[in-house]
Design a protein that fits this description.
The structure is a homodimer of 147-residue chains.
Chain A: H1 2-28, H2 33-57, E1 61-69, H3 78-84, H4 88-98, H5 103-110, H6 114-128, H7 133-142
Chain B binds a DNA duplex (30 and 30 nucleotides) through helix 4 and helix 6.
DNA sequence: CTCAAAATCACCCGAAAGTATGACGACAAG
DNA sequence: CTTGTCGTCATACTTTCGGGTGATTTTGAG
């Protein structure tokens, strides 16, 4: 900012000097005053425009438009995960249950036996204090364990 | 934009007229050429600055800040409800299922027999193309039928 | 009033889910 | 090396779900 003013001042000084020179030259050779005025006008207009641009260049109006995002990225609430003491496997199975898969489908997906899925889900229900898988899903969603 | 150029041109014209007047006045009364030049310089510098400001005024930086919408009031997607052809009762039962209630608990809550709940839920699953209640819940949530 | 949709209930049966118990191997921590 | 957790699997049993069928009552629109 101050730098610009300084530059502006220097330019003004230089111009005055230039004007003096021009004045004597042109006046002596009897040139019309219009050329002189036009020159001054052009130069100062240019400087003015330049100054105006410089001054407002960084003055950008920041418009903050807040956009509601319905589907946030979702990250698992690790704190709750620890509170419930869920193992990674149990958490994984909770997700699949929430997706509406049956025990058999989960078993197929994870390449384990259906019995394994049952033991996992049983322990899962215990830890979540759920009596049914739908209840587990509901608790899981509320606690931020699953999307 | 064009408007500005027009205004600028008009100003220029006016100034030339003004200059003519000033010229004769000041020349006649033998005033120094510096005052004339300074005036022109000042006016054109001002116009230049003004123009510069006008030209760059609209440099607005739009910052889009994504804000996770806190807790929407949630309203049932009536359109989807009709698409699926769910009756009020079926929709009600879907909600209770999503809350993790068993058929028996739902029956108790609605003061109907467990069989009734079963027939309702059966038709519900048919309409939602769900094979299990967990799947029905998942579909229901996706479709905005339930919170 | 009449008809259709909605809501209610019952019974049966097979499938799925959930409980209980026990067991085995892997692996990390003490 | 021992202990504990985790993941795996099995067997047996109970409960819940879901499908199918049929029937009655209620209710709202025509």
């Amino acid at each position: 900012m101050k730098k610009h003013i300084l530059i502006y001042g220097i330019c003004g000084g230089l111009l005055i000097v230039a004007l003096k020179v021009i004045e004597y030259r042109f006046l002596v050779v009897e040139h019309s005053i219009e050329i002189y005025g036009g020159l001054v006008a052009a130069v100062f207009a240019a400087v003015g425009i330049w100054l105006g641009l410089k001054l407002t260049k960084k003055k950008e109006t920041v418009v903050v438009r807040e956009v509601p995002v319905p589907a946030q990225p979702f990250s698992v609430n690790q704190t709750r995960l620890q509170e419930f003491g869920l193992t990674p496997r149990e958490h994984e199975i909770l997700e699949l249950i929430a997706n509406g898969l049956s025990n058999r489908e989960i078993a197929a997906k994870l390449f384990v036996s259906e019995n394994t899925v049952k033991t996992h889900s049983s322990r899962l229900f215990d830890k979540l204090s759920a009596k049914r898988r739908t209840q587990a899903v509901q608790i899981g969603k509320e606690s931020g364990l699953i999307p």
